[in-house]
């Protein structure tokens, strides 16, 4: 390359210089002597943007004589490179060191060449000599006082490099230098000795310790010592060496000691060496886990035995209360259990939830282990906190052999208590384990435990529909009598579960019901909206022992369809006991409908993960980290009151908070900052700061459209700290029902997410005060809601926005959120059940009513009605209201409480179930809150957030005159934007007049399918939660980015397309004149239809598009223009 560059520059540099360069390359001393006085010996040529002189050329080839000749001609020994200029290029000595030319390096050193000048990557001549393992050059540079501690751009020294490559002699040479610092850490926080320990390089480690005094106890940035790494990778000789030089065997990494690490990875020899070094066998991790526990968990009998011999305590329990015996029984390690039993491990230790070793062995059906524990003997009837015993859990999980063992050992077949919910017979009946039911009955289990309640075995079997179990239980004496119409009999259970076949079984077994009971059960069936209501009614009729006249056959709950909506005076109330049961039934129905519509913890987690991804894209697009997505879109529960499928309710928006740059404000009397300046200290009063000069309008609204949600932009000023946060104050924590884990997260968020103030003020204080915002704490608490708590909020928000808000002004969604928070704080966990949802809603509305009524007699008239949940000294107000408005709100609230059953029925009718695939619509570049773009050509691999600017630029270029291709830009687009990329390629071909290539590409994409959204549905009852990584991975793995809203002052018109297509793509959005929409999937289909491709595929697309819930204007336009099926088009138009 030197030779070629010299030849290419001959004409532009002149013959003398190019000849000198070539002479240096070839080592032609005589020619150098002739030319050195005729040209500038330091004049460089450019290779790959770097300057190279004749001295570079001679040094790189090791031409010592040529180097000497050039130096005698006063050539710059550093090749024109100087540390003072800040430019970093390879010097002549760098090239000589790389080539291992020792004599040349020495000559350059004698000429005062700087041995520490780095190249563009921060690598010095010493570093490059190590790279190519030139030992003699390394020694020469060290003797010349080259900086052995010099770090390159990734914080790596020559010593790090030598150790990582296993160059023992070079390590010894560097370690012997009197200036070396062997404890320097590279960018990942590891020293040279860490590298040696991890690689098992014994002699290198010894050189580092003996020659340079490396610290054997130095911790890396993640807390690992060299001994920890050696133990982790089973380097036993190194363990011996490190402990010989006094390495501490108990220094831990994140609480994990070396012996724990060795036990965890099954390194028995390493464990033995550490035991010899007196390692603490009872050292615990952050989770109180011991080496013995981890050995038991992983089934390592040899390690377990060694630890016990060394004095490990077999009864140590980790943070959740599990012992080594517990985890061995859970995992099914029989040999481990034998060793622990022999070592006198206590089999009756209970974990945090009360589980014992026998419990978890029975739970998993490890019969051999169960038998060993029974022989110890272990206590058979110890209960979990939920009253479940080993017999109960084995019954639930269907482990018949385990049940036989426990019965033979005289375990209590009734579960050891009167808690029928956890009785073995009920659990076996509920889960349809016939053999176990029969075995328990044979062992004289109480078939009538909790008779006439929903916890009885026969009730559970009837409710779920296990007909064989019902027969067995009834024949075994289960009580099926009906004491009253409202009792909890098997008949009631069958009706509540919609099990008409069970009713038939019960009728066959001789069960009869009274007219009154039949009337009651018909009403129950009506409330539950059973799918098989006709069959249920038929069976009820045949079970009734008196003839039922036509009047009784009508439902007992009157139809409200003919009543004036909202007039409680016309409502007939059933008696109290019937009402309670009806409320319970409606609660179950509401819970079921809301769950089907996606209002669950799992689905809410997906909404939250999508919001976090959108926030990340927004930050990257704006190059601003202090911008946050908040409000209902981010809080996960209230973004849509119909279905949790990613779409934003037409009456909701996406809220954006952007912090104004500058110093934070300090709260007088609260701030603890030592250097707070007087001019930035503000007075805090009742949830506000005194800060005159700002408007009271908190948000800058941007209108939404059918395609794109509205956006509220809020500017905020940082505060240095939060005022006292109510739910974290001791007097409230002591009585709080908010889980401790959530309170801890709130505490953490106080230091993680900045407190701030926004442009809002109390009545009469506009321009003088700013309101303290707790939006991040609200987001945390909203994201921590359980399924029932979230459903309560959604129902409250529906009532406040859709019912109350349309009758009277004042209440807003924020009031519903605050009431929800108060309910979460005040309501015990056991009351959050599906059967109680109606009651919880009623209590919430009464709580809101009481707050409004309490404001009547107060002296203030500014509309305040309740305390702020997080700021106890602040208040919430009725928006734009006064005392008279408060009285109107109270009247409406009383009406809503009276009409609650009808209103909830109305609400349920609006709910839409989540699709079977769990589709979640998420098109980031359609809903991105800020779509303004400054064009900047992307460098390197395209990042996901850059897809938008590349697509937008391509659309703009296609609309402009000229024949320049956009192919180079399109090649940057990844497969997750395939439809956009391929569609733009087609347009590029068409613009350039290459229709054949365009048609080929259209043909290739006939059967391609885009991702309509994220398909994710957690299994019912699972703890699975969506994560940000999951959303990112889904977006990357699918064709996800094909819907775009873009900003153009003028609509881009692609005049090379047919008129219809150029008029429709892109189209103007309804919210702003400069916003344009482009659906690349619709455009691809449109182009394929225009070129008359496969009619079967076209018809398939027409059918699917006609039923698409997300049908947009462009898809509709393509349907109307190309679809030949007039009936399909007519049906489609009828929807609009």
UniProtKB/TrEMBL annotation:
User: Which sections of the protein are ANK repeats?
Assistant: 50-78, 121-153, 188-221, 254-286, 287-319, 320-352, 386-418, 420-452, 453-485
| Highest taxon, organism lineage | Eukaryota
Q: Which Gene3D superfamilies match?
A: 1.10.1410.40, Ankyrin repeat-containing domain (1.25.40.20)
**Keyword vocabulary terms for this entry:** ANK repeat, Repeat
- What SMART domains does its record include? ANK (SM00248)
Q: Which PANTHER family does this one have?
A: PROTEIN VAPYRIN, ROLLING PEBBLES, ISOFORM B
**Protein name, UniProt field:** Uncharacterized protein
Q: Which organism is it from?
A: Macrostomum lignano
Q: Could you read off the lineage of the organism from its UniProt record?
A: Eukaryota, Metazoa, Spiralia, Lophotrochozoa, Platyhelminthes
């Amino acid at each position: 390359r030197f030779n070629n560059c010299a030849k290419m520059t001959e004409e532009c540099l002149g013959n003398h210089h190019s000849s000198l360069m070539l002479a240096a390359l070839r080592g032609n001393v005589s020619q150098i002597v002739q030319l050195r006085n005729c040209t500038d010996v330091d004049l460089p040529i450019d290779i790959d943007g770097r300057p190279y002189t004749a001295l570079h050329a001679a040094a790189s080839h090791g031409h010592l004589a040529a180097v000497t000749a050039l130096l005698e001609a006063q050539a710059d020994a550093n090749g024109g490179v100087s540390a003072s200029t800040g430019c970093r290029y390879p010097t002549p000595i760098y090239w000589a060191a790389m080539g291992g030319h020792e004599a040349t390096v020495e000559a350059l050193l004698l000429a005062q060449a700087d041995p520490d000048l780095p190249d563009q990557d921060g690598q010095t001549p010493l570093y490059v000599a190590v790279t190519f393992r030139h030992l003699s050059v390394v020694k020469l540079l060290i003797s010349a006082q080259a900086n052995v501690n010099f770090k390159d751009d990734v914080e790596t020294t020559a010593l790090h490099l030598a150790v990582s490559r296993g160059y023992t002699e070079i390590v010894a040479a560097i370690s012997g230098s009197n200036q070396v610092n062997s404890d320097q850490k590279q960018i990942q926080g590891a020293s040279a000795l860490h590298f040696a320990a991890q690689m098992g390089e014994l002699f290198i480690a010894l050189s580092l310790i003996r020659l340079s005094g490396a610290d054997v106890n130095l911790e890396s940035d993640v807390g690992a010592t060299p001994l920890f790494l050696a133990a982790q990778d089973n380097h036993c000789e190194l363990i011996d060496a490190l402990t010989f030089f006094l390495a501490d065997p108990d220094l831990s990494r994140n609480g994990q000691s070396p012996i724990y690490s060795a036990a965890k990875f099954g390194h028995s020899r390493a464990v033995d060496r550490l035991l010899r070094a007196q390692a603490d066998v009872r050292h615990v991790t952050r989770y109180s886990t011991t080496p013995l526990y981890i050995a038991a968990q992983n089934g390592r009998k040899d390690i377990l035995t060694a630890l016990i011999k060394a004095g490990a305590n077999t009864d140590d329990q980790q943070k959740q209360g599990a012992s080594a015996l517990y985890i061995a029984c859970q995992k099914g390690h029989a040999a481990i259990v034998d060793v622990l039993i022999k070592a006198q491990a206590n089999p009756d230790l209970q974990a945090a939830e009360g589980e014992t070793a026998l419990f978890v062995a029975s739970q998993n059906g490890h019969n051999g282990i169960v038998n060993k524990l029974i022989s110890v003997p272990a206590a058979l009837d110890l209960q979990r906190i939920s009253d479940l015993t080993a017999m109960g859990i084995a019954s639930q999980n269907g482990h018949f052999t385990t049940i036989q063992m426990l019965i033979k050992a005289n375990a209590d077949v009734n579960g050891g208590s009167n808690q029928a919910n956890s009785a073995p017979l009920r659990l076996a009946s509920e889960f349809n384990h016939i053999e176990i039911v029969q075995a328990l009955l044979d062992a004289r289990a109480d078939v009538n435990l909790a008779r006439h309640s929903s916890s009885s075995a026969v009730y559970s079997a009837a409710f779920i529909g296990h007909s064989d179990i019902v027969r067995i239980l009834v024949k075994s004496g289960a009580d099926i009598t009906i004491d009253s119409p409202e009792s909890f009999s098997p008949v009631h259970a069958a009706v509540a579960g919609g099990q008409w076949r069970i009713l038939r079984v019960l009728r066959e077994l001789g069960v009869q019901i009274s007219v009154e009971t039949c009337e009651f059960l018909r009403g129950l069936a009506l409330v539950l909206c059973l799918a098989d209501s006709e069959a249920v009614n038929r069976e009820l009729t045949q079970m009734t022992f008196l003839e039922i006249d036509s009047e009784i056959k009508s439902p007992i709950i009157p139809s409200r369809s003919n009543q004036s909506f909202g007039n409680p005076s016309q409502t007939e109330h059933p008696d109290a006991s019937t009402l309670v049961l009806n409320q319970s039934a409606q609660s179950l129905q509401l819970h079921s409908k809301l769950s089907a519509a996606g209002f669950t913890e799992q689905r809410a987690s997906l909404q939250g993960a999508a919001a976090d991804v959108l926030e990340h894209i927004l930050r990257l697009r704006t190059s601003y980290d202090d911008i946050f997505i908040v409000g209902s879109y981010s809080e996960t529960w209230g973004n849509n009151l119909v279905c949790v499928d990613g779409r934003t309710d037409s009456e909701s928006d996406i809220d954006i908070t952007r912090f104004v740059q500058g110093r934070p404000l300090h709260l007088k009397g609260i701030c603890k900052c030592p250097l707070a300046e007087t001019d930035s200290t503000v007075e805090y009063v009742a949830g506000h700061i005194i800060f005159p000069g700002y408007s009271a309008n908190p948000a800058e609204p941007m209108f939404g459209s059918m395609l794109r949600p509205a956006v509220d932009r809020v500017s905020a000023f940082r505060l240095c700290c939060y005022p006292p946060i109510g739910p974290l104050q001791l007097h409230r924590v002591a009585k709080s029902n908010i889980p401790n884990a959530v309170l801890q997260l709130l505490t953490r968020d106080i230091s993680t997410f900045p407190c701030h103030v926004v442009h809002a003020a109390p009545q009469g204080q506009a321009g003088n005060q700013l309101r303290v915002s707790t939006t991040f704490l609200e987001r945390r608490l909203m994201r921590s809601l359980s399924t029932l708590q979230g459903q309560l909020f959604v129902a409250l928000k529906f009532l406040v926005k859709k019912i109350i808000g349309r009758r009277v002004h004042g209440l807003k969604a924020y009031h519903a959120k605050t009431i929800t928070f108060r309910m979460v704080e005040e309501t015990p966990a056991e009351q959050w059940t599906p059967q109680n949802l109606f009651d919880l809603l009623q209590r919430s509305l009464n709580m809101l009513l009481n707050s409004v009524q309490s404001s009547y007699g107060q002296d203030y008239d500014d509309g305040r009605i309740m305390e702020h949940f997080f700021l106890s000294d602040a208040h919430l107000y009725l928006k734009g209201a006064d005392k008279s408005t408060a009285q109107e709100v109270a009247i409406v609230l009383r009406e809503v409480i009276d009409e609650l059953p009808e209103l909830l029925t109305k609400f349920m009718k609006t709910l839409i179930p989540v699709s079977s695939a769990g589709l979640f619509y998420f098109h980031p570049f359609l809903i991105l809150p800020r779509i303004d773009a400054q064009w900047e050509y992307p460098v390197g691999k395209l990042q996901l957030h850059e897809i938008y600017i590349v697509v937008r630029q391509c659309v703009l270029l296609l609309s402009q005159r000229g024949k320049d291709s956009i192919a180079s830009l399109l090649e940057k687009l990844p497969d997750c934007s395939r439809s956009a990329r391929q569609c733009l390629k087609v347009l590029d071909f068409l613009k350039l007049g290459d229709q054949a290539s365009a048609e080929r590409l259209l043909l290739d994409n006939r059967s391609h399918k885009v991702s309509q959204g994220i398909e994710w549905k957690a299994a019912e009852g699972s703890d699975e939660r969506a994560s940000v990584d999951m959303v990112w991975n889904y977006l990357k793995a699918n064709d996800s980015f094909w819907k775009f809203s873009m900003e153009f002052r003028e609509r881009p018109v692609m005049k090379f397309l047919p008129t219809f297509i150029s008029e429709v793509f892109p189209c103007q959005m309804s919210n702003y004149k400069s916003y344009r929409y482009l659906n690349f999937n619709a455009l691809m289909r449109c182009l394929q239809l225009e070129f008359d491709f496969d009619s079967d595929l076209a018809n398939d697309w027409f059918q699917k598009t006609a039923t698409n819930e997300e049908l947009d204007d462009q898809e509709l336009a393509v349907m109307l223009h190309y679809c030949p099926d007039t009936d399909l088009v007519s049906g489609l138009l009828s929807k609009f």
